[in-house]
Every structure is written in C-alpha cells, then in structure tokens.
Amino acid sequence: MGIVKISEELHEEIRKSSSVMSRSINSQAEFWMKMGMLAELNPSLTYAEIIQQQLKEQAFDMSRCDLEVAPSEKKAG
Predict the structure, then answer these.
(1) Buried (b) or exposed (e) across 19-57, using 16+ Cβ within 10 A?
(2) pLDDT in tens, 2-47
(3) Is residue 34 part of a domain?
(4) How far is 8 from 56, CA to CA, in rounded Å?
C-alpha cells in the first residue's frame, strides 16, 4: 500500500463523506480516486452509468434492486 499526500481540506471532506457512506477514510478516498479515474477514461458516461457498469462487472444482480417511483402529482394552483 502506498501513501498519497493530500491537503487537510480534502482529508476533512473525505472524513465527513466516509462517515455518511459508512466507509473507512481510506476506502472513501480509494472510491473517489477510482470513480475519478473511470470518469476520465469514460467521459461520455454519467456517474450512475459508471456505477451500473461496475456492478455488472462484479456480476451483481441489479434486477433485485429496481425501484418503481410513482410520478409526482402536479398541484393545482
């Protein structure tokens, strides 16, 4: 494992995000670096498409995770 030096400000943002995402600080930093690398290599893909592609590569059954969202009702006004 290597060491990467980053600013205190970025480290603080990683720390906050890692808490919200239930990841270790190192795992959160690695996730952000991986997503950034994949985004640079695939500029035409959205974040959601990159995640979906990564899940497919891990043979994750996404059909069990499909959510049906009811269309929002417009308010009369």
Answers:
(1) eeeeeeeeebbeeeeeeeebeeeeeeeeeeebeeeeeee
(2) 898 999 999 999 999 999 999 999 999 999 999 999 999 999 999 9
(3) yes
(4) 35
Question: What DSSP letter does each residue of 64-76 carry, written as one string?
Answer: GG----PPPPPPP
Residue numbers of the domain that contains 51: 8-58
pTM for this entry? 0.71
Who contacts 24 (Cβ-Cβ below 8 Å, separation ≥6)?
Answer: 18
Number of structural domains found in the chain: 1
Higher pLDDT, 49 or 71: 49
Contact between 42 and 57 (Cβ < 8 Å):
no
Question: Whole-angstrom Cα distance, residue 10 to residue 4?
Answer: 12
Whether 44 is in a domain gets the answer yes
pLDDT of residue 59: 82
